[in-house]
Every structure is written in structure tokens, then in C-alpha cells.
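User: Please fill in residues for this 713-position structure.
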């Protein structure tokens, strides 16, 4: 064959090797492609050693050594390839390397030395061929056995790979025959090369086919998953819409009874006047109405149901002047001052009810989140064709990582529970309204450094014929500040002490009112304040705590309390709005005696408190009675005389009998059986038997009779 023909073979091997090596780089977990590329590359070396090497040297020693080494690597890589393809984990790679080293590599070295020293080509060929042929037969037989045993034939593509390897081995086994019979080296190379090429082509086809099958399976799986995801998304969307519609309908249905309750309550207030209790009821009904209206309007805005008419020219300056005095009344309850700086006659096009709502939300938040004695600045100004409204407060502020989320629906300013916190709809409504009028809203804030909301509107210039509405009615804002007058904390010796830890002042006041006439009631606003207050009040007989509180929640408070032995035995009740079963289990596993969910029946709570304190008192009496009885027994030597005790103690000391064993001996001397001793000492019967066996061994006796005689003497 011409050199061009051998170059064709080399090109084929090289192309296949490079292709599968590139596949391996894309899928490194699939090492079969790596071993395949090694087979092709080492085959090129072997082919070179049998053909083109003659262009560079005619040394029999060099040619023979190079040929043998290249065959060694071809065979080794085929063995590793087969091990990996057929997943034969029981064949360790190290064993394959050892077998090839002993039966192939070492004979090559020996044969090369003989060829160099003796110039005996036949002997050197025999030394290489016989062990390597033996290795091929062993691997072929053992590989076939494992192939059948592990049922690799169940995968058709592996059957064809197995056949391709057998073809190669068959061609390979013909090589030593050709050598022994001195067949032309070109024919030797051609036959061996054809065997490798057939194996490589068959294997390449099968690997590629299997790879394509996996690829098609993945595409099919992807399409199936996409379809399932799409169907599931559609189902979830329908479920969400159903739930949303349910809540909308529920809210609509609740608005009617709430309206009736609110109006009848207002009517009753006019007839009978106000009281602290009525004020609390009125405040909470108004809050419910506000939240329901916000929820309904938020849903309408998100669905694109526009219900505001923004094609109206309004005097924003005048509206602000009407609104601010209404909020000043609320702010004064927290001693907060509102400072205004309003430029006159600034007009915008917007529904007056919409701007009324925006102002309500911003000022309500400013008052709600400002501390007492704070200050709120409201500024309205114009710059070219823009109108700027800013509301700045000196409140708790908003951290930078939360500022991007505050305009999302139902997002609360703090993930830590605060008693001043709403349910997170107001700012989202403001954002939607501002989008409708093509305005902007932004926020600048830092934690504990106040917050500034900035709104920008397009300024509107009235034409000569046009008149803006001057008589805008403004709504009365929701009073988010309610003053609670707590009763003084009084201690009376003849009463039990109850410690209430609740961050909602209205709830804390309600609980205090209901417990005040029967118990000494002490209050704290969160877990941290409660821990600090414990040292200043009488030791509580019962603690009732909320869970979700700022600074330190109820769980943290409980865990800290249980670390102090002074308070670890106090009964603890969680009273919370968190109603999940997991939370309840969590609280009871911690050691709480009860977990009561809001809303709750106050009579039920009072009866539970009474029962717990009565049980506590009964346990204390029983404990005192037991202590008294035990003390009497000691005084009157009920168990045994001082003389007997002294003799018993001396004997036990002599025989090194410990206290537990002494207890068992005393019970044995009283005639008690193993079962009764086990019950009294809270031991298992096996433990009692082991202890008695130890006692007998120490005393050098065999049975109970000898024990009685020993201690009587």
C-alpha cells in the first residue's frame, strides 16, 4: 500500500479521535468518549510504527520497540473503554494496569533487550506475543462472562459494541500468526488496522446514535415538562383567580354588615356618648373598613379596571390645605408637629378622590411610623412644568434593601412584627394611581433616620375659559393613633401574679381590664422589655405572651426565661394570631402549657388561667405535705433505730456497698420481691437483678437467706 493509503487511515483515526474528544469536553461525566479518542490516537502511533516509520529509520530495534509499545497502549485503552462502557465496576482499574504491565509491558522490555543483545528477532517476538496473546484470551473470556452475567445484552447498542471489540480482538489475534509465519509486514499492518478501523467506526456510530437518543429523550422530556408546567401554571392561575374572586366576594359581603355596624355604632355614640371601650370598637371597625376598601381597590387597579376620572383640573394647593389640619388632630396625640410649606395655586389633572387617597396614605404612614415628639414636613412646589409634593418624617426609616419592595402589594415595611404595621396595600395603591396620571413616586430613607416620599406631577395651566373645581370635598382620615390609658400596676399579697407580654396596646389593655380585679397584672411590650422587668416585679405565677413581637419575639423570650432556674417552672401560655398547627406543636414542644389563637373567647382564657393556678396551688400543697411527712419520719426514726442504722452503715462501709445497693438491701430485708423493688426504685427488673448479684459478690454470699443472716448478726 502506498504512503498515501496509510495517511488515509491515519486521517480517519485522527478525525474520529478529535471528534470524540471534543464531545468529551462538552460532557466530561461521559468518559467513554475520552477512552475512544485515546484508542484512535494510539492506533495512529501503532500504524505509524508499522508503515511510515521506515521513512525515518530502518533500525529493527527501534521499529520493534515502538510497534510493541503502541500495541500495548491500544490494547490497554480498549480494555479501559470496555470496562467503562459495560459499567464493570467489579474490575478495578488498578488490576487492568497490573495485568497489562506484567503480561505486556515487561515482556516488551525483555524482548527489546534480547533483540539489542542477541539480534534474535524470532525469540523477541515470541516473548512479546505469547504473554500478550494469553492476556487477550483471558480478558476476552472474562469480559464475555461478565457481559453475560450482568445482562449487558439487554441494551442493543452495547451488543454491537461488544461485537466490534470481538472483531478487533480477532484481527489482533491474527497478528502474531502473521509474525510467526513471516507474512508480509504490509499485510500484517493492513489486517490489524482494518480490525481497529471496523471497531472504531462501529463504536463511533453506536456512541453517536446513543448520544442522539439521549438528546432526543431530553428534548422530548423538555417538551413534556414545558407542557406540564404550562398546564400546572394554568391550573394555579385558575386557583389563584378563584381564591381572589372568593376574597373579593367575601369582602363585598362583609362591607354591608360592617357598614351597618359602623352606622349604628355612630348613632349609639350620638345618643349615649363615648367611652374607652366604645372608642376601641370604633377604631377597629374603621380599620377593617379601610383595609377592605384598600383590598378591593387594589384588585381593581391590578386588573386594569380604571375607576378614577383623571380628566379633571384640581387645585392641589387648596386640597393640601384642607387635608393637613385633619391630620394635625391625629398627630397631636403623639405630640407630632406637621410643618407645611405650600406654594399657592398649583394645578394638576387628576381625580380629586385619587389625590385625596394618595395624601391620606402618605400622611397616615408618616404619623404611624414617627416617634413621639417628632416632626413631619409637607412641601408643595413647582419647577418649570412639574409639581413636586414631598412628605418627610422623622420616624423609624426604611432600610436600603427594603426600599425596592415597599411598593409591592402586601409587602410590609418590616418582616419583624410591629404593632404599628398594616398589611401592605397602601403604597401599592399610591404607585398604581401615580402610574395612571403618568407621575412618579420615589423614596429616600435610612433606618432610624426618617423617610422622604417624593411625588412628581405634570403641572397644568388653566386656560382663560377653563375653571378648576374649587369645592373639593376631602375625606376624614383614618385615625391610626389610639390613646390607651393602662391601669396602674398594683401588688396585693393575697393575689396571684400574672405577667402579660403583648406588643399591641389595645390587646394588652383589654387583657389587663379582664384580669385586673382578680390578679396582680404586670405588663411588657416585647420579650426584651419583659426580661428587664422581671427583676423589678413579684415573681409571676403565670406568664401570657404573644409570639410575633419586635426586638425579641415570644419564642426567644421563652428560651431565655427557661435558662434561669428562678423562672423555669413558671407556667407559660402563648396567646397569638399565628394559627398554624406547626407553630402550635413548636410552642408545646418547647414546654408551653397552652397555645391560644386569636381571636379567642375571653371567658375561655379566664377559666384556663384559673384552672392552671389552682393546679399549681394543689401541687404546692402536696409538695409541702410530702416534705412535712418525710421530716416527721426522720424525727421519729420510723425506718430504723439509730443503733441499727449505725451498725448497717458500718457494715456497708466495710464491704464498699454504695447508696443504691444499700437501698436494695433494706428492701430485701423487708421481704420485698424484685418486681416491687423495681417499682419503688424506678429500676428495670434486670437492673435490680444485676445490682443484687453485685451485692452478693461483695458480701461473699449466695442467696437472700445468707444476706438476712449476715445483717442480723
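Assistant: Residues filled in for all 713 positions:
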Amino acid at each position: 500500500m502506498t504512503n498515501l493509503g496509510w495517511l488515509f487511515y491515519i486521517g480517519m483515526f485522527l478525525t474520529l479521535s478529535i471528534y470524540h474528544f471534543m464531545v468529551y469536553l462538552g460532557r466530561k461525566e461521559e468518559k467513554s468518549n475520552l477512552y475512544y479518542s485515546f484508542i484512535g490516537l494510539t492506533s495512529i502511533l501503532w500504524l505509524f510504527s508499522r508503515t511510515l516509520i521506515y521513512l525515518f529509520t530502518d533500525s529493527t530495534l527501534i521499529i520493534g520497540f515502538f510497534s510493541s509499545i503502541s500495541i500495548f497502549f491500544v490494547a490497554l485503552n480498549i480494555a479501559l473503554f470496555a470496562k467503562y462502557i459495560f459499567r464493570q465496576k467489579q474490575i478495578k482499574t488498578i488490576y487492568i494496569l497490573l495485568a497489562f504491565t506484567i503480561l505486556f509491558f515487561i515482556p516488551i522490555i525483555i524482548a527489546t533487550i534480547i533483540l539489542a543483545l542477541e539480534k534474535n528477532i524470532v525469540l523477541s517476538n515470541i516473548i512479546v506475543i505469547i504473554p500478550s496473546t494469553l492476556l487477550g484470551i483471558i480478558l476476552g473470556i472474562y469480559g464475555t462472562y461478565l457481559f453475560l452475567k450482568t445482562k449487558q445484552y439487554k441494551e442493543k447498542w452495547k451488543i454491537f459494541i461488544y461485537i466490534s471489540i470481538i472483531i478487533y480482538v480477532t484481527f489482533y489475534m491474527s497478528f502474531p500468526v502473521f509474525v510467526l509465519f513471516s507474512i508480509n509486514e504490509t499485510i500484517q499492518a493492513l489486517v490489524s488496522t482494518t480490525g481497529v478501523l471496523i471497531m472504531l467506526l462501529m463504536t463511533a456510530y453506536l456512541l453517536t446514535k446513543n448520544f442522539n437518543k439521549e438528546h432526543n429523550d431530553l428534548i422530548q422530556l423538555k417538551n413534556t415538562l414545558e407542557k406540564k408546567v404550562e398546564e400546572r401554571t394554568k391550573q394555579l392561575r385558575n386557583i389563584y383567580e378563584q381564591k381572589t374572586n372568593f376574597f373579593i366576594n367575601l369582602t363585598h359581603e362583609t362591607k354591608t354588615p360592617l357598614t351597618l355596624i359602623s352606622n349604628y355604632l355612630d348613632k349609639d355614640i350620638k345618643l349615649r356618648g363615648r367611652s374607652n371601650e366604645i372608642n376601641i370598637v370604633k377604631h377597629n371597625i374603621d380599620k377593617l373598613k379601610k383595609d377592605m376598601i384598600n383590598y378591593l381597590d387594589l384588585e381593581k387597579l391590578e386588573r386594569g379596571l380604571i375607576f378614577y376620572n383623571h380628566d379633571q383640573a384640581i387645585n392641589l394647593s387648596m386640597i393640601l390645605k384642607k387635608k393637613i389640619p385633619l391630620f394635625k388632630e391625629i398627630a397631636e396625640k403623639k405630640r407630632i408637629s406637621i410643618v407645611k410649606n405650600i406654594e399657592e395655586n398649583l394645578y394638576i389633572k387628576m381625580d380629586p378622590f385619587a389625590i385625596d387617597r394618595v395624601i391620606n396614605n402618605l400622611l397616615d404612614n408618616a404619623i404611624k411610623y414617627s416617634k413621639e415628639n417628632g416632626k413631619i414636613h409637607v412641601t408643595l412646589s413647582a419647577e418649570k412644568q412639574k409639581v413636586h409634593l414631598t412628605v418627610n418624617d422623622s420616624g423609624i426609616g426604611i432600610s436600603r434593601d427594603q426600599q425596592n419592595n415597599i411598593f409591592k402589594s402586601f409587602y410590609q415595611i418590616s418582616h419583624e412584627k410591629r404593632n404599628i404595621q398594616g398589611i401592605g396595600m397602601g403604597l401599592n395603591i399610591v404607585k398604581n394611581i401615580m402610574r395612571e396620571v403618568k407621575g412618579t413616586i420615589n423614596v429616600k430613607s435610612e433606618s432610624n433616620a426618617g423617610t422622604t416620599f417624593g411625588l412628581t406631577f405634570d403641572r397644568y395651566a388653566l386656560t382663560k375659559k377653563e375653571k378648576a373645581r374649587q369645592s373639593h370635598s376631602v375625606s376624614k382620615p383614618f385615625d391610626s393613633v389610639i390613646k390607651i390609658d393602662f391601669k396602674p400596676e398594683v401588688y396585693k399579697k393575697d393575689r396571684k401574679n400574672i405577667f402579660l407580654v403583648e406588643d399591641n396596646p389595645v390587646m394588652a389593655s383589654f387583657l389587663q381590664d379582664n384580669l385586673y380585679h382578680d390578679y396582680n397584672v404586670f405588663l411588657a411590650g416585647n420579650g426584651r422589655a419583659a426580661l428587664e422587668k422581671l427583676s423589678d416585679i413579684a415573681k409571676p405565677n403565670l406568664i401570657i405572651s404573644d409570639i410575633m413581637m419586635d426586638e425579641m419575639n415570644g419564642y426567644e423570650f421563652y428560651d431565655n426565661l427557661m435558662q434561669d432556674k428562678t423562672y423555669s417552672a413558671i407556667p407559660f401560655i402563648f396567646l397569638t394570631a399565628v394559627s398554624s398547627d406547626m407553630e402550635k406543636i413548636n410552642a408545646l414542644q418547647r414546654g408551653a402549657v397552652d397555645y391560644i389563637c386569636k381571636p379567642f373567647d375571653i371567658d375561655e382564657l379566664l377559666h384556663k388561667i384559673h384552672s392552671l393556678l389552682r393546679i399549681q396551688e394543689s401541687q404546692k400543697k402536696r409538695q409541702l405535705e410530702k416534705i412535712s411527712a418525710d421530716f416527721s419520719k426522720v424525727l421519729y426514726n420510723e425506718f430504723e433505730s439509730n443503733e441499727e442504722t449505725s451498725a448497717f452503715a458500718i457494715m456497708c462501709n466495710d464491704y464498699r456497698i454504695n447508696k443504691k445497693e444499700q437501698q436494695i438491701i433494706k428492701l430485701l430485708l423487708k421481704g420485698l420481691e424484685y418486681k416491687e423493688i423495681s417499682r419503688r426504685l424506678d429500676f428495670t427488673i434486670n437492673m435490680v437483678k444485676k445490682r443484687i448479684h453485685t451485692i452478693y459478690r461483695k458480701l461473699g454470699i449466695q442467696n437472700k437467706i445468707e444476706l438476712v443472716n449476715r445483717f442480723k448478726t
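For context: The radius of gyration is 46 Å.
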